Each structure stands twice: as structure tokens, then as C-alpha cells.
Model the fold of this input.
Amino acid sequence: MPDDPTWSELAVAQVRQQSRLVASRSRQPLKIINPNSPGGSCHVVLASYGGGLVAGDSIRLRVRCEEGSRMLLTTQANTRIFKSIDGSQAEQLTEGFLAEKALAVVLPDPLVPQADSRYHQAQHWHLAADAMLLLADWWHAGRTDAGEKFAFTTFATELRVSVAGRLVLLDRFALRPEEHLATSQATFGPYHTALSLYLVGPPNDARFQQLAAALRRLPPLGQTDLHAQLAGRRCVVAVSQARDNVYVVRALGNSRLDLEPIYQAVSEALAAQELLGFQPLQRKY
Done:
């Protein structure tokens, strides 16, 4: 693919048995940070000026993980989507390429679309046949501590994952609160934060099996299905195996704290030496 100066870029490769950031280019409002990390993996943090995106901002990021490399991609803090005054939207576009036996873990903090904001996000990850991706997509209903819930104008997110050139995962979500009753029992009901986790990789790989087992342990004790008896729970979690090589986790909560145990459980699983070799949350908090 020809170089496009309007895109930010980062590349991770194995250098002397350590995964290292070997190329980086930031375009405003994105800033790429590369803190030291243990365990032989590369940690990349995405930050933005002002702690969020204003209408008209466009972040375009291309990620490359070379053969055998391991990368953790996180954000500095919650990404706030600020009010749109002129009807324009903020957007984030990500295109990722994982070579043979590469591992990419994407664990961002939640997106927080504020009142009257407009936001669109699209990701397409291209995996080699034996590469592995664990990716989270997390967003809030707004500044709920201030009483703001589903006050944004539009919110849309799309994820595509291809393995060896074949599309294996396509997930789209869009919400326009003026047209959709977000608080009905058919949509979010009493819940204000939504988290999706996606695991894609070779099903016979021991690392994939290890992470899949950790995901299957996520539902709270006694919860196996979404049914009427879940009413009143502070969070609900559903784990499904969509394909032999794809797992999907859906979780709804009343607050970030309700869903934080999910990130904590995933962080603990990733600490295995054959995965990241350290706990992402311990470094952050």
C-alpha cells in the first residue's frame, strides 16, 4: 500500500528477541507514546490533544505488527467526543496488519460521546493465518456522573477482521437517540456502559486456547444466558464462540466500575509469559 502522509503509522517488529516500536509517525490530533514495557512485548499508548476529539477531527492510524511480534495498544484515558456545533462529526479510522505469529492486544479506555456530539469509528484488521488479535470496543452513554445519558446526536462503530484475506468478523453498531429509544428494555434498559471483546486467532494455537478459556470464565457466577432473571444485576455478560477462530464477548453495566473486573480478568490472563508477559492494568493504575 503506498505511503499516505495523512495517516499516522506505527510498526512493531522483533529486535533481538524483543518486540520494539521500529517506526512511528503521528498526525494531529493523535500522539503516539511508547513507554518501556517488561516481558519482551511492545506497549504503545494513543493520546490526543485535549483528551478527546472535537467535531471535524479525523484520526487515521495504520498499524503493522511484523512476524512474531507482540504489541499492547492502549489509550491514555477516556476519549471524550465533544459537542458538534456545525453538524460535522469526529472520526477514527484504523487499519491493522498482523504478520505470521504476531499478537496484537487492543485495550482502549472507554469512548465518552458528550451531548450533541457526532462520532464514527471504523477498524479493519488483516491477519495472517496464524496471527492473533484480542480487541476491545468500550463506550459510555455520556457524562453519566453529571446526569448526561444518551444525549449525543449520532454514534457509530464498525469492526472488520480478515484472516488470510477472508473476512471472518463483521460487527456494526449505530445509535441515534432521537430515533432509537436507548433506555428501552430492547436496547440498553438501565445500563449506561457497553463493552465488546473480540478474540480472533488460530484455534489450535495454545495461546488462543488460553485466552479463549479466560473469556469463557468471564460471566458472573450463576449467569449463563441473558434471561428475565438477570433484571436488577449491575452488569450482564455473554460469551459466544462465533466461529472456530472467533470469540465475542458482550457486556453491559451501570458504570465503568461494574465492567472493570472484565478488563482485570483479561489483564491477568495476558500476564502469561507466552502472551504479553505483564499485566496491562498494573502498569496503568
